[in-house]
């Protein structure tokens, strides 16, 4: 039986077999056993008078055991039931002198170096169970709302979106690549007969499907070769990208807000133990900080997101707020906001969310010059129908837009952006044959997991993070 099930069903008097890993072994008598099913351990009480000393010696932190025993109401604090063992088998020994995970607090940095053993800790167990539940909730949300999931390609021949930020996919021999007559590299000889890369987004392909299936989404890995060593960037991350025919920018905002609230509510209802554990962990972690440096307690933060309406604020209004803000006037921002048109940095986004509004903010109608070519140009000819959702502690969690559906305008934009039209002929064609208003967004999955788990570094919410100079495991 799963330990989680035993702890909730409390089958007192029943003899049950469990398997799991030893978290701690106290007083030669109490094993805290965990099988990954939940954050709580099963306390196994060993009869040290009848068990052989050889076997007791092999019960060490990290060892894998199979235990049979009878479930009884617990006299001790901290658990309602415990197991009195009648038979213990060591399935896998673990040398306590070598096992890197000691029953004490380790730093997140150290745990990253032993990412192969992170799933054996309470914190990472909780984070990855939540990660699972969250992806399930996302699929459920879209499925229940009539969306179809599309598996967009991971290898792409178009670099329209991420020129310069892409990972090349090639089978050419880097030592002696084939050359053309003028001495440049002959991509025609490569596997796909042209330059190809790992995708930075499934959006363009999702749009093609939206204009046939109506409501679609993608949920896949994306890759960015940007050299961003931050707590919010990964070189490989997962993104959810819905795309909906007939939705305008405001429908798009409604969808994103509804989706985020739904999945967070789902976690609050279905991952109570793990969230409570992470909530307590964060408070413990920050207890030495001064009051004003501490984050909002996790459960309160989640509650406030699901029960408050997100603020909607145009880029132009945001620039006014920022220009008149204290940190801007006192030149406390690294990038002082001088005029309309400036790109917003994460310091500005966080000021708006955390200091000014105090809740999630949807910024929209950005200057065309700082956004992608495919966004719908507004009547003012200066701004585009873009929207970003900013979350406290995270900054941008969603980036989306209403797409340019007018053939001539899109064709001109592609030219203005210096993109080769031939590489996007298929994208342009959808605007020629039955074009329509449509919108979509990209939700960064790991940023959302960071937010809901309270883990401050994005590297701690993906099993094996890929970042500059790091692809271990
Ligand atoms: P940022 O400005 O934060 O670098 P972006 O504007 O480049 O993000 P988009 O291209 O809009 O990001 O991607 C959509 C979403 O994907 C973002 O809102 C964010 O949640 C997520 N995202 C983008 N880049 C990364 C990354 N390197 N690692 C993890 N998540 C990311
Ligand atoms: Mn963005």
Give descriptors for this structure.
5-stranded mixed β-barrel; BirA Bifunctional Protein, domain 2; OB fold (Dihydrolipoamide Acetyltransferase, E2P); binds manganese (II) ion; 2 domains; alpha+beta; 473 residues; 8-stranded mixed beta sheet
Q: Give the helix tally.
A: 14
Overall residue-averaged pLDDT value: 95
Could you give me the name of the CATH homologous superfamily of the largest domain?
A: Bira Bifunctional Protein, Domain 2
Bound molecules: adenosine-5'-triphosphate, manganese (II) ion
Distance between the termini: 31 Å
Q: How large is the share of residues in beta strands?
A: 15-25%
CATH class of the largest domain: Alpha Beta
Radius of gyration: 27 Å
How many domains? The number is 2
Physical arrangement of strands within the biggest beta sheet: 6-10-11-16-15-14-13-12
Structural class category: alpha+beta
Which helices and strands, and how do they pair?
Layout: H1 3-9, E1 15-26, E2 30-34, E3 42-45, H2 53-58, E4 64-73, E5 81-92, H3 108-113, H4 122-144, E6 148-149, E7 155-156, E8 168-169, E9 196-198, H5 203-213, E10 215-223, E11 236-245, H6 249-270, H7 272-285, H8 298-307, E12 311-314, H9 315-323, H10 326-329, H11 346-357, E13 361-367, E14 383-391, E15 395-402, H12 407-416, H13 425-429, E16 438-444, H14 445-453
Bound molecules: adenosine-5'-triphosphate and manganese (II) ion.
Description of the molecule:
The structure is a single chain. This protein has helices at residues 3-9, 53-58, 108-113, 122-144, 203-213, 249-270, 272-285, 298-307, 315-323, 326-329, 346-357, 407-416, 425-429, 445-453; strands at residues 15-26, 30-34, 42-45, 64-73, 81-92, 148-149, 155-156, 168-169, 196-198, 215-223, 236-245, 311-314, 361-367, 383-391, 395-402, 438-444. With 473 residues, the protein is α+β, with helices and mostly antiparallel strands. It has two domains: 3-104, Beta Barrel (OB fold (Dihydrolipoamide Acetyltransferase, E2P)), CATH 2.40.50; 122-165 and 200-460, BirA Bifunctional Protein, domain 2 (2-Layer Sandwich). An eight-stranded mixed β-sheet has the order 6-10-11-16-15-14-13-12. Strand 2 (30-34) and strand 3 (42-45) form a beta hairpin. It is globular, with a radius of gyration of 27 Å. The protein starts with a helix and ends in a 20-residue tail after the last helix. The structure holds adenosine-5'-triphosphate (ATP) and manganese (II) ion (MN).
């Amino acid at each position: 039986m799963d330990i989680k099930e035993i702890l909730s069903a409390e089958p007192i008097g029943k003899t049950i077999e469990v398997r799991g890993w030893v978290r701690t072994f106290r007083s030669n008598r109490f094993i805290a056993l965990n099988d990954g099913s939940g954050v709580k351990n099963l306390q196994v009480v060993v009869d040290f008078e009848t068990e052989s000393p050889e076997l007791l010696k092999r019960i060490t932190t990290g060892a894998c055991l199979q235990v049979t025993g009878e479930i009884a109401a617990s006299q001790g604090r901290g658990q309602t039931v415990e197991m009195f063992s009648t038979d213990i088998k060591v399935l896998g020994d673990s040398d306590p002198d070598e096992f890197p995970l000691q029953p004490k607090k380790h730093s997140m940095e150290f745990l990253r170096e032993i990412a192969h053993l992170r799933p054996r800790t309470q914190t990472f167990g909780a984070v990855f169970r939540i990660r699972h539940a969250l992806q399930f909730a996302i699929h459920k949300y879209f499925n229940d709302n009539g969306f179809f999931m599309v598996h967009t390609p991971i290898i792409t021949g178009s670099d329209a979106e991420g020129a310069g930020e892409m990972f090349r996919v090639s089978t050419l021999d880097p030592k002696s690549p084939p050359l053309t007559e003028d001495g440049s590299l002959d991509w025609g000889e490569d596997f796909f007969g042209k330059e190809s890369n790992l995708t930075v987004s499934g959006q363009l392909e999702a749009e093609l499907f939206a204009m046939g299936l109506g409501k679609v989404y993608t949920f896949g890995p994306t890759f960015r070769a940007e050299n961003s060593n931050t707590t919010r960037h990964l070189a490989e991350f997962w993104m959810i990208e819905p795309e909906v025919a007939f939705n305008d920018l405001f429908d798009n905002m409604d969808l994103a807000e509804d989706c985020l609230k739904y999945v967070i509510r789902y976690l609050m209802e279905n991952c109570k133990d793990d969230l409570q554990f992470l909530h307590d962990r964060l408070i413990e972690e920050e207890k030495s900080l001064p009051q004003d440096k501490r984050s909002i307690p996790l459960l309160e933060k989640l509650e406030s997101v699901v029960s408050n309406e997100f603020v909607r604020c145009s880029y132009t209004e945001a620039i006014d707020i920022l220009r008149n803000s204290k940190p801007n006037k006192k030149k406390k921002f690294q990038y002082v906001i001088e005029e309309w048109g400036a790109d917003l940095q994460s310091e500005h986004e966080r000021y708006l969310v955390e200091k000014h509004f105090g809740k999630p903010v949807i910024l929209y109608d950005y200057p065309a010059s700082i956004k992608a070519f495919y966004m719908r140009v507004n009547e003012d000819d200066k701004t585009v129908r873009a929207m970003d959702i900013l979350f406290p502690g995270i900054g941008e969690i969603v980036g989306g837009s209403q797409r340019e559906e007018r053939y001539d305008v899109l064709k001109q934009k592609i030219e203005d952006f210096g993109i080769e039209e031939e590489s996007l002929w298929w994208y342009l064609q959808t605007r020629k044959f039955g074009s329509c208003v449509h919108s979509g967004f990209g939700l960064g999955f790991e940023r959302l997991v960071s937010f809901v788990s309270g883990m401050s570094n994005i590297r701690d919410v993906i099993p094996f993070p890929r970042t500059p100079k790091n692809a271990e495991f």
